[in-house]
Amino acid sequence: MEDVDRISDLPDSILTHILLFLSTKEAVGTSILSSRWKYIFTLVPNLHFDLVDDLCHKNLESCILHIKSFISFVDKPLSLHETSLDRFHLKCREMVHGPRVYSWISTAIRRGVKHLDISISPDQGVPFPNLKALHLKSVEFLSDDTTKSLLSSCNNLEDLVIAHCNIENLFNFTISHHLLKRLTILSHYRKIDF
Fold first, then answer.
1. 3-state helix, strand, coil in the chain (%, to 5)
2. Domain 1-44, what fold?
3. pLDDT digits (tens, 9 = 90+) for 81-118
């Protein structure tokens, strides 16, 4: 009896829905199954990239290889992705250069991302010169300097929402933006609009 591949005969929308149940790495991996599957992963609206930091504590050479592999892994799906994004998750601490991270975030924004989840080191210096609205939810502010660094990288910020964030580590929480029109702070107890 001949092997029949009935799954590949399904429409793109169903194959994409199936890939939603896989991790981004597994979804990209399906591109080697056949020519039919080569670009199906580019239709998945959720991308999740997480550089596992603990792999870089073994030795420098394996760390460098791991980072290069991660960069290639993020570059490929983002460069081939054609549809709008619902979610983009990126976690990579000090290990990836700021301009590279900025290009990934910019690409996600150009793809119309609705939910952007970024966990990066404040030292990476990722600028957001065109960002007009920033909504921070459940963010832990580590220090006054990191908060200042983040907000100063948003030169055109007009709308800032800080919702349920941990500001216990801050001594002086200062927000100074000449274009800021609206500031909303939401705590578990009340909403404050400025």
1. 40, 20, 40
2. Monooxygenase (1.20.1280)
3. 878 999 999 888 666 777 888 889 889 988 888 888 88
Span 43-75, pLDDT tens digits: 999 999 988 655 566 677 777 888 888 889 899
Half-sphere exposure of 155 (CA within 13 A, CB side): 5
The secondary element (H helix, E strand) that includes residue 90 is strand 87-92
The 3-state secondary structure of 11-33 reads: CHHHHHHHHCCCCHHHHHHHHHC
Q: What's the predicted TM-score (pTM) here?
A: 0.69
Q: Residue 44: exposed, middle, or buried by beta-carbon count in 10 A (0-12, 13-18, 19+)? A: buried
Helix (H, G, I), strand (E, B) or coil at 111: coil
Where do the structural domains in the chain lie, given as residue ranges? 1-44, 46-125, 127-194
Query: To 10 degrees, what angle do helices 60-80 and 98-110 make?
Result: 20
Q: How far is residue 94's CA from residue 67's CA, in Å, rounded to a whole number? A: 11
Measured CA to CA, the distance from residue 101 to residue 78 in angstroms comes to 12
* Cβ(44)–Cβ(16) below 8 Å: yes
Distance CA 41, CA 27 (A): 6
